[in-house]
Amino acid sequence: MSNRSQPAKGPNLVPVFVAIVVIIGAALAVAVLQNKEDEAKANEPSSSAPKEDASRPNPFADIDNSPTGGAGTRQTLDDTAPPGLMDTPTFVGAKALADEAIVLVAEAEKARGTGDEDTFQKKGAIAKAKLETAFERIADWVLDIQTKYPNDRQVARIDRETKKWDKALRKVRMIR
């Protein structure tokens, strides 16, 4: 028999334990340094308002985030446009034409509901033509006032009115 020693069974775990201790020590050192930096920043005098970068525009500047705002979505409307904007001849004429068309759309829908497709087509075609003409008459004017008077009460009313016209036009849009 020989006097040889038997080899150790299993891998040597000393390097694994050393690596774990070094990683934990490094993590603790980083945490301590970070905590000291945070304390130093907290002790620095700073202005109460956050600094804004003047080189970048704020994409949310037009949103009202005041407590009375509806979750940051409310726009405040002003009276920047001259009074009587809705009384301009351009809008009054287009509105009269659109009102006639809306009545015709209602009659056309009623006719379609009773199964009178011929009357629906005739009245719908007339209503569609009138609504398209009304939109054409005010298109440039609306773009102009929206550019000149953003967030104006009168412009918002005009916009709501033209949305009614568009809703009526969608009902007869398929007519040719």
Structure description:
The chain has 176 residues and is mostly helical. The chain has a domain at 85-172. The protein is 61% helix and 0% strand. The protein has four helices and no strands. The chain has helices at 14-43, 89-113, 117-148, 153-172. Helix 2 runs parallel beside helix 4 (153-172). The longest helix is centred in the last third of the chain and has 32 residues, at 117-148. The radius of gyration is 36 Å and the shape is elongated. The N and C termini lie far apart (110 Å). 15% of the residues are buried. The mean pLDDT is 82.
Q: What is the SS-derived class?
A: mainly alpha
* Poorly predicted sequence stretches spanning 5 or more consecutive residues: none
Global outline: elongated
Mean pLDDT: 82
In whole angstroms, how far apart are the ends?
Answer: 110 Å
Number of helices: 4
Sketch the topology as an H/E string, one letter per element. Answer: HHHH
Radius of gyration: 36 Å
Number of β-strand runs: 0
Helix content: 55-70%
Largest sheet: none
Strand coverage percent: under 5%
Per-chain topology:
Blueprint: H1 14-43, H2 89-113, H3 117-148, H4 153-172
Helix pairs in contact: 2-3, 2-4, 3-4
Structure in a nutshell:
The chain has 176 residues and is mostly helical. It has helices at 14-43, 89-113, 117-148, 153-172.
Keyphrases for this structure?
single chain, 176 residues, mainly alpha, 4 helices, elongated
